[in-house]
Design goal:
Elements lengths: L3 H7 L4 H23 L8 E5 L5 E3 H17 L2 E6 L6 E2 L6 E9 L10 E9 L19 E9 L3 E6 L4 E7 L4 E6 L10 E3 L10 H11 L11 E2 L5 H11 L2 E4 L14 H14 L3 E3 L19 E4 L1 H9 L3
Parallel strand pairs: 3-5, 11-12, 11-13
Antiparallel strand pairs: 1-2, 3-4, 5-6, 6-7, 7-8, 8-9, 9-10, 13-15, 14-15
This protein binds 6-O-phosphono-beta-D-fructofuranose.
6-O-phosphono-beta-D-fructofuranose binds next to loops.
């Protein structure tokens, strides 16, 4: 089976980017090990603190963030980091050529039930003019990403990654510690009859999403003329993995629950990397108003509505916004 290195070389990734990706994945392997130890290592449960988003931090959120931060800061390849668990950007090396944004442990509430969680990341060039502690360099649209992916800590540890030449899936071979290519160039089916959304928020949704979901729920008796099935992992990384593997549509729309947080998912380290992976696999990623990867960020923890997955289904959903 092909190793990650060979695939990255075949895809034309520059050497420094390959070295950075390998460094980042070394951190993810360490996280994978810590996660798998679970209660044996005393890593489950919450800390007493909240992160910048006002969410309770799990011990594994803090541990995973620290592992990534330490390894990336010392690598020399990274100028600065932005993380879900850090209020501001973390300056690394003034000579670093890359910016890395990550959610160190997406879906961390799933740690309590031994269910799917993962690390999501995106990588962009660091502009020459920027100082390492300058957050404005992170405010680039997703079209500027040079690589993005996630590591899914499930029954096996898997990596989905793109450098802009297709989306490939790798599986961590724990016998020798390498990621091996297990599916290249995945193609998301254009049609689907499976959707993922947290329907407990239905009464807070905007009208276009209410209309779209009502059509799906009406099944073969409604305008779509077929029955749909619903899945919800409560970890974006798990839901997106399923959509990449067999198609579907994943949505986290804006809602009116809390006017200060109109929507849940963050652009830099959740929506953008997943959008890049999905587009490279033939899928579509939209906010309802436009392409996710073209949103110009105004701050590093910005939230966006997310509608992502099989081409025809996302387009049908987005048509409700017009
Ligand atoms: O980071 C946010 C997140 O955990 C996503 O991974 C997931 O899709 C979503 O929140 C789950 O939200 P809810 O609590 O509404 O099910």
């Amino acid at each position: 089976m092909k190793r990650l290195n060979s695939q990255l070389q075949q895809d034309g990734a520059p050497l420094e980017l390959i070295l950075l990706i390998r460094t980042l994945l070394a951190a993810c392997k360490e996280i994978s090990f810590r996660v798998s130890q679970g209660a044996l290592a005393g890593v489950l449960g919450s800390t007493l603190s909240e992160n910048v988003q006002g969410e309770t931090q799990k011990k594994l959120d803090v541990i995973s963030n620290q592992i990534l931060k330490d390894i990336l800061s010392e690598s020399g390849y990274v100028k600065a980091i932005s993380s879900e668990e850090e209020e501001g950007v973390v300056p690394c090396s003034e000579d670093g050529n890359y910016l890395v944004s990550f959610d160190p442990l997406d879906g961390s509430s799933n740690t309590e039930i031994n269910s799917l969680i993962g690390t999501i990341f995106s990588i962009a060039h660091a502009p020459q003019w920027m100082e390492a502690n300058d957050p404005s360099a992170f405010l680039q649209p997703g079209t500027q990403m040079v690589a993005a992916g996630y590591v899914l800590y499930g029954p096996s540890t898997m990596l989905a990654m793109t450098t802009g030449r297709g989306t490939h899936l790798y599986t961590l071979d724990k016998t020798h510690g390498g990621f091996l290519l297990t599916k290249d160039n995945i193609q998301v089916p254009e049609q689907t009859s499976e959707f993922a959304i947290n329907t407990s928020n239905a009464r807070h949704w905007e009208q276009p999403i209410q209309d779209y979901i009502n059509d799906l729920l009406a099944g073969s008796d409604g305008p779509r003329g077929k029955d749909y099935n619903m899945r919800w992992v409560a970890a974006m990384v798990g839901d997106i993995h399923r959509v990449l593997c067999r198609g579907g549509i994943f949505m986290y729309p804006f809602d009116k629950r809390n006017p200060e947080k109109p929507g849940k998912l963050r652009l830099l380290y959740e929506a953008n990397p997943m959008a890049f992976l999905m587009e490279q696999a033939g899928g579509v990623a939209s906010t309802g108003e436009g392409r996710i990867m073209e949103v110009m960020p105004t701050e590093i923890h910005q939230r966006v509505p997310v509608i992502i997955g099989s081409k025809e289904e996302v387009e049908t959903c987005v048509s409700k916004y017009q």
